[in-house]
Fold:
Amino acid sequence: MQVNQTIIAGVGTDHKLSYKQSSKQPHNNPTTITKAILQAILRALTQRYHKTTQDNQINMPRLKDFQSKKEIDREIRLVKSEIEDVTKEIKDKRWEATKEQTKQLCASCIVTSGPTEYTDEEKAMAQQQFNEHEERALCALHRKENRERRLETLNERIKDLQEFRDNWTGAD
Structure:
């Protein structure tokens, strides 16, 4: 069996996808090839999702790993500074999404304009730009949502740390 490799633009240039064609089907069957490509894309996106979720999680020490109140206070300060950073990232991603949606709106105005205002080539280019800005806006919103989930996790963590510090009976 021959293994075909392809690079899918929607997945990124750093992810090479491979798929095998079934020996039962002819090699030139477009349905089989399309199905195999879609399965390869799904596998690559699933792998990318799992890698991203692992990268987004930081190593937070368990509450019982602390040996003094100073260590707990240091961890609280670190979490608070990370909360500030994540909050700033959320604002940045929201602004990025707004900019892309504005550009998308401008491109849609060109696409839906009358035939005398813009040529078909200009409308086709505007349609392509519309699609690009729509994709970028969705990605920015997705990243913002990820940061919001991260912020919730950090807020829960700081509550746990403060409660643990208040109930601390060990060394200062």
